[in-house]
Specification:
Helix content: 25-40%
Number of domains: 2
Distance between the termini: 29 Å
CATH architecture of the largest domain: 2-Layer Sandwich
CATH superfamily of the largest domain: Dihydrodipicolinate Reductase, domain 2
Oligomer: single chain
Structural class: alpha/beta
Strand order of the largest sheet: 14-15-13-12-11-7-10-9-8-16
CATH topology of the largest domain: Dihydrodipicolinate Reductase, domain 2
CATH class of the largest domain: Alpha Beta
Length: 429
């Protein structure tokens, strides 16, 4: 599921109010904390051989992957695969050099395909991912890893036993410069000791698709059935869940959740509205609210500590400091702006580089790489890992941790029971 496509943006914002001379001063006097907080971004010119890849599953997410891949330098889509011929036909223009196939095994047999993107319905991930790894392919598997803990562990174990191949889970924020930028503030103790966290995803949409035949319609509505769906926590909540696992440096110890169909009485067997409370070590609780019934206030992640709070909304982020928090040197140059009833310091990845170009970071959409979103950075990172023979930012362990967390939250939303996590669910023996 694309993380950024449905995220709400705050209106006109800025980061630094400074002239060219002020910019030079900032470049010369940035504190160690601010310099360390700049996100690491891959260069536009890839180093290493070109990467040929194939996309398996050409629904909405598969087509989004094709669009992102078409813009990544040094990457060529040489294969596309789907069991539904209209999807294959519709995807040919987006991948003009690709050979179409209706059976994923045909793609895995090809010697000119090194990387596989899996964007099928979640319940079909395991067979394809394991087969791709056994065929010696690098694998990018959309999140969540699977629709059951057993299948997620099976995929992660297969990836662990294939160390020569890159395995990346589509937890897009792990490769996103903005999230990495904020993470360095969290790690650098600017936020202080974590106290609690919140996240939400609100969008009024039914998720029900229509098709020419009843069988095809059932196929397309796999997200609405318990036997094939990871539920709202798995389909959309997992990105915020992974962010909190990452920022809090731990998996949760328990989850309690509540869910129900408050709007769509159409025969679906998974809730259209869910609230979850995750408890992390040290008593830190993360509250998550997801609904398909209303779009108010969009989506965001918020982490609060005893020294400050960080808010991420779309491609923007802010720091809200407590009155007793120590003043950092770089704050002298930071632009404060209203966010709701609060005033925050805008956090912008690559701010120093943007200033060097004579632009104001965060103002009027000014970024180092306009048009690039979290999905783009995620697929670009996968290609770079293949070229450089290095592990992905979100590998089998991180992907398994996020999947187990989300799937157990979905289970709790169906039963209304509190679930205590078994450490064995996260282990790859």
């Amino acid at each position: 599921m694309t993380a950024n496509s449905d995220r709400e943006r705050v209106g006109r914002r800025g980061f630094l109010a400074t002239s060219a001379s002020s910019a030079a001063m900032i470049l010369a006097t940035h504190s160690a904390v601010e310099v360390a907080a700049q996100a690491q971004k891959p260069t536009d010119a890839p180093t290493g051989p070109p990467v040929n890849c194939a996309v398996i599953g050409l629904g909405k997410q598969g087509r989004d992957l094709l669009a992102a891949l078409s813009r990544v330098p040094g990457v060529t889509v040489t294969g596309i695969c789907d069991t539904y011929q209209p999807f294959l036909n519709r995807s040919k223009d987006a991948a003009p050099k690709a050979t179409p196939a209706s059976d994923y095994r045909q793609v895995l047999e090809r010697k000119d395909v090194s990387g596989i993107f899996i964007a099928t319905p979640t319940d079909r991930h395991r067979d394809i991912a394991v087969a791709a790894l056994q065929a010696g392919k690098h694998v990018y598997c959309e999140a969540p890893l699977a629709h059951t803990v057993e299948d997620a562990r099976g995929i992660a174990l297969a990836a662990k036993t294939a160390p020569k191949q890159v395995f990346q889970v589509g937890q897009q924020f792990r490769s996103n410069p903005q999230h990495n930028h904020v993470w360095k503030f969290v790690r650098g103790a600017v936020v202080g000791r974590p106290a609690c966290a919140r996240a939400q995803w609100h969008k009024k949409v039914s998720w029900r698709a229509t098709a020419p035949t009843p069988d095809r319609e059932r196929e397309m509505n796999w997200r609405l059935r318990r036997e094939t769906s990871p539920g709202l926590p798995g389909e959309v909540g997992i990105h915020s869940i992974d962010t909190m696992n990452w920022f809090l440096r731990s998996a949760p110890v328990s989850v309690a959740a509540f869910g129900g169909n408050v709007l769509y009485q159409d025969g679906r067997t998974v809730p259209d509205t869910v609230q979850c409370v995750f408890e992390y070590p040290g008593g830190v609780r993360f509250m998550q609210d997801i609904t398909l019934a209303n779009s108010f206030d969009g989506s965001y992640e918020l982490l609060m500590g005893d020294m400050g709070a960080v808010l991420l909304r779309g491609e923007r982020a802010w720091l809200f400091k407590e009155a007793d928090a120590p003043l950092e040197g770089w704050e002298v140059y930071a632009r404060r702006e209203p966010v709701g009833d609060e005033t925050g310091i805008a956090l912008v990845a690559d701010a120093t580089k943007i200033l060097a170009l004579g632009k104001v970071p965060g103002k009027d959409g000014s970024t180092l790489d306009p048009g690039k979103d979290a999905l783009y950075y995620s697929v670009e990172a996968f290609a770079n890992c293949i070229r450089q023979n290095k592990p992905a930012a979100c590998g089998p362990m991180e992907g398994l941790q996020a999947a187990v967390t989300a799937l157990k939250a979905h289970e709790a939303s169906l039963t209304g029971a509190k679930i205590v996590f078994d450490k064995k669910w996260f282990e790859l023996a």
